[in-house]
Amino acid sequence: MRLTADIWVAAYLTRLRLHGIPAFVVKRGDNTAGAVLIKLNTLDGQATSFQRSFDLMTGDRRWTILAQGAEPEVDASIARQRTFDPDLWVIEVEDKAGRHLLDEDGLD
CA-CA distance, 29 to 47, in Å (whole number)? Predict the structure, then answer.
């Protein structure tokens, strides 16, 4: 059984909050089936966006980098994704150390 997008987002935001990492919902997507895109803002003009991808070889879902570089370029990439997918969730994480917790157990 898969978690709905809104439950996953709520759990992710809680986990970030417990680690003292600020994050907020930039765009709320479909509650049940919306894809989730994470933007990591390192507060130095740089950013990285992550999306979940399906690995055809292993059948696993993993977080992959969608865009990385200057924050305006990453924002433009996210804006393009939003035009393709109106159900997309966009979560912005702000952490100077670059922590996003996506590599921790339970977030894949």
Answer: 21
